[in-house]
Amino acid sequence: MEMIGSCLSMVVIYSLYFSTNAILVHKPPIIHTNHPYLNIYENSPIGTSFVVIEASSQTNDVVTVTPHDNATAARISLVPVKVGVNSTYMALTKLIPDRETERIWYLTFQAHDSHGDTLWTLPLHIDDVNDNAPFFVHDHFHAVFGFGLTVGTKALHVTALDVDEGPNAAITYSMKPHLVTHPSSRYNAFDIDPSTGDITLKEALQHGQSVYHYQVNATDGGIPQHVASALVDISILDFGVIG
Ligand SMILES: *[C@@H]1O[C@H](CO)[C@@H](O)[C@H](O)[C@H]1NC(C)=O
Ligand SMILES: *[C@@H]1O[C@H](CO)[C@@H](O)[C@H](O)[C@H]1NC(C)=O
Ligand SMILES: *[C@@H]1O[C@H](CO)[C@@H](O)[C@H](O)[C@H]1NC(C)=O
Question: Taking every annotated instance into account, which residue ranges of this chain make up the domain Cadherin (predicted)?
Fold first, then answer.
């Protein structure tokens, strides 16, 4: 009876000890900084500051904040402004962000004191800058038609792409005669749709001209704008004219 009693009290003391300890262990630091996400422009120089992280101890310990994983450590350095029970760190970039390579940096920071660790994950969105020019899918577009081509017919389609985003990737096409060796009026026979890149015959073909040479441009909507050029040749097989 006595033995059972002391055994029970030991169990009670034991579990009390552990539960008290467990309460102490579960008082990790608090991270006060709380953004669902933040933004930074691509090409921002190394050392750009984008957030201040504040963390405090619940147990009067010294709190430190560090990048939690290697991916975060590779991209961010944390500069301590104040380290103590309440600590403040400034987060600076260690790499130049490039939206075309990585649209979002998922960053995780860890606040640490002797009573535990707290993690905070911050998606850092990389905003677009117009740092890419459009490019045509071919340098040279070519089409061949018979003289019977009627006005309004879509003769050719040119396409340019731009890896930027939004207005920085919005392309406007333009076209004008290139390498003019014939009366210029005839060169205006074809016209381009600025938004689609469709090239159509807008006025009747005239005998005596077998190739229409044009330069086409693709211009993006960024500031400053970027331009790409390509060549368009439209050949007309005109069997109606001899000599
Ligand atoms: C993180 O970096 C450390 C030290 O540079 C290295 O030992 C470890 O293997 C890396 N971990 C991962 C998951 O890459
Ligand atoms: C830490 O910050 C809390 C809340 O702002 C404040 O009450 C406390 O006095 C600060 N402690 C120290 C050591 O600065
Ligand atoms: C294409 O762009 C170049 C350079 O900006 C310009 O000189 C040329 O006139 C443009 N051509 C067309 C068809 O818009």
Answer: 98-136, 152-238
Tokens standing for 24?
Answer: 């102490």
Mean pLDDT of all residues in 185-212: 87
Q: How far apart are CA 20 and CA 13, in angstroms?
A: 11
Quick check: do 30-127 and 135-237 share a fold?
yes
Closest atom of ligand 2 to CA, residue 86: 1
Strand (E) or helix (H) holding 211: strand 211-220
Q: Which CATH superfamily is domain 135-237 in?
A: Cadherins (2.60.40.60)
The model's pLDDT over 52-91, given as tens digits with 9 standing for 90+, comes to 999 999 999 999 999 999 999 999 999 999 999 999 999 9
Please report the atom of ligand 3 found closest to the CA of residue 216. Answer: 13
Rounded to two decimals, the pTM is: 0.77
For residue 14, CA distances in Å to 1, 6, 18, 21, 27 come to: 20, 12, 6, 11, 21
Domain ranges of the chain: 30-127, 135-237
Ligand 3 atom with minimal separation from the 176 CA? 13
Tell me, in angstroms, the distance from the centre of ligand 2 to residue 107's CA: 27
> Which residue's CA lies nearest to atom 1 of ligand 3?
217
CATH architecture for the domain at 30-127: Sandwich (2.60)
Specify the residue with its C-alpha closest to ligand 2, atom 2.
Answer: 86
Residues 170, 221 contacting (CB under 8 angstroms): yes
pLDDT of 6-23, one tens digit each? Answer: 544 444 444 444 444 445
The best mutation among 85, 88, 113 to test binding of ligand 2, ranked by most ligand atoms within 8 Å of the C-beta, falls on: 85
